[in-house]
Design a protein that fits this description.
Layout (H helix, E strand, L loop, with lengths): L13 H22 L3 H10 L22 H8 L3
């Protein structure tokens, strides 16, 4: 959405947003068509190169993710302990 914010935010029209979304869909459609025939090959290459899997535990409420923790929850709960 880079082009949407180059000018005044209020100058963006509904048509601009539709055109942007259409271009994004076309881009991802092209990627899908290019790589989908090779999906199994690419998947097996990726899985062969996995070095380790990591899991997180001991979350206080909801699992937050190992690499994407909530900074807000870290500050609020971390400062209370």
């Amino acid at each position: 959405m880079d082009f949407l914010f180059k000018g005044n935010l209020f100058d963006i029209t509904e048509n601009d947003i539709k055109n942007y979304c259409k271009k994004e869909c076309e881009y991802y459609d092209t990627l899908s068509k290019e790589y989908s025939p090779r999906y199994n090959e690419l998947y097996s290459k990726v899985t062969r190169n996995i070095v380790r899997k990591e899991y997180s535990s001991k979350g206080s409420e909801i699992h937050r993710g190992f690499y994407c923790p909530s900074p807000v929850q870290d500050v609020v709960i971390g400062n209370c302990k």
